[in-house]
Every structure is written in C-alpha cells, then in structure tokens.
Design goal:
The chain has eight helices and twelve strands. The protein is an alpha/beta fold. The strands form two sheets. Strands 1, 2, 3, 4, 5, 6, 10, 11 and 12 form a nine-stranded mixed β-sheet that branches.
C-alpha cells in the first residue's frame, strides 16, 4: 500500500476530529501525579495526533514538545494550544516530522516519552528499531517511556492481519500499509536492546468494538 493512501487517513478531517476529541490517556493521567514540579519535566509526545495528551500536559504546566507526521494533526494541535502557549513556542515545539528522525532534539533531553499508538505504524523492522534508538537517544537516564503498541491478534474490521514471511513482527495491513505488531515479551526485548527496562509487568489488553478487535501491549519503561 502506498504512503499516499496511509497519509490520506491521517489527513482526513473526520479522523482529526475523532482523535482530537479523545480524552487524555488514562495511564498518563495517573502517571503525571508522581511529578511535584511539572514545569521541570520535559516531555516528548511522539505521534501527538490531535493533541489530546499534549494539551492535557501543557495545561498542567509540563515542558512539552510534540511531533506528528500529519500536517492536519499538527495544525489541530497548534490550534488547541493557541490560548496556552505563545506563538514562538507553538512554532518551535509542535513539530511536523517522522518518528524515526528526531535530529532536531538533543541527546538526553526528555524526562518523559509518550509513545502511545505510534511505534506499530513502522513499516519494517528497520524503521521500528531506528525509531526506538532515536527515542532512547533523546530520553535522559532515569527518564520514563509510556508505551502502547498493537500486538498480534489486532484485527481491524475483525480481519486478523497476516505476518509477512521471514519477518519477526511485521504484518500486512491492506488499508494502512505494513504494521509492527509485537507481543509483550517482544516489545520488552526490543526496548531493553536500546536501554529501557520495564518498571512493571507489561500488560496485553483485548478490546472489541464495532470497528474490530484491538489487542494492545501497555508498558512503562525506565531508561538505564
């Protein structure tokens, strides 16, 4: 499937509205309570979509950067932050870019990384691992990574995806292109390879709706 078709999904106004309308991530809402001085915590929202988590964090006073590959999602996020951040901050911190290239960020810069529903959008094992290395590079020692990644069994429209031959965890997705679906053990191993270790047991969550079956690994890691 071409990147053009995949991009059309994320640029579609209905999808932008749908993602923007979501509540902040439940695990994130619990996690932020541990920070007594949010203004001292640098956060990267990787794949910010319509800004649900970015806006939530900015309102709490966290020092936030956000990146997304969709022009429409970035535009929506900036629009929602106009009354919270000055124009210069919007320009510098809400970034149109891809997850595998964070060259705009310094090493050991972020204290908290959000990778919620983003890593699985990699088209290959190479892109997936490059992204993990980049996010590890920009996360400070002792920093946390809150991760959600689709797992084997994920079935949009109840059509289970097929693993690509000779691939470890890349699956064919006719609508959005290849996806990287990892079990909890596989995700832990890939994260540990770039210097993260799980702070708690990674959990596999199953959820069915009228749009299909979602199987997601929810994990929290700390950078060595």
């Amino acid at each position: 499937m071409t990147s053009k078709i995949k991009n059309n999904f994320w640029e579609d106004a209905k999808q932008v509205e749908r993602f923007a309308a979501r509540e902040p991530d439940n695990r994130l809402q619990k996690l932020v309570k541990q920070y007594d001085n949010p203004q001292q915590i640098r956060v990267l929202d990787l794949g910010c979509a319509g800004g649900r988590n970015t806006v939530f964090l900015c309102k709490l006073g966290f020092d936030v950067w956000a990146v997304d590959a969709s022009h429409s999602m970035i535009k929506e996020t900036k629009s929602r932050l106009k009354r919270i951040l000055p124009t210069e901050a919007l320009r510098e911190r809400i970034i149109h870019g891809v997850m595998s290239d964070l060259s705009w960020a310094a090493d050991d810069f972020f204290d908290l990384l959000l990778a919620l529903g983003i890593y699985h959008n990699a088209h290959s094992e190479g892109e997936f691992r490059t992204t993990l290395r980049e996010t590890a590079r920009v996360t400070t020692t002792g920093g946390l990574a809150l991760v959600a990644n689709f797992a084997p069994g994920f079935a949009p429209e109840f059509q289970e995806l097929k693993k690509i031959e000779n691939s470890k965890f890349v699956y064919e997705h006719s609508a959005n292109g290849n996806m990287c679906l990892l079990t909890a053990d596989e995700l832990d191993a890939e994260m540990e390879a770039v210097g993260f270790y799980p702070l708690e047991k990674s959990e596999t969550v199953h959820h069915e709706s009228e749009t299909g079956r979602r199987v997601t690994v929810n994990a929290l890691y700390k950078k060595r």
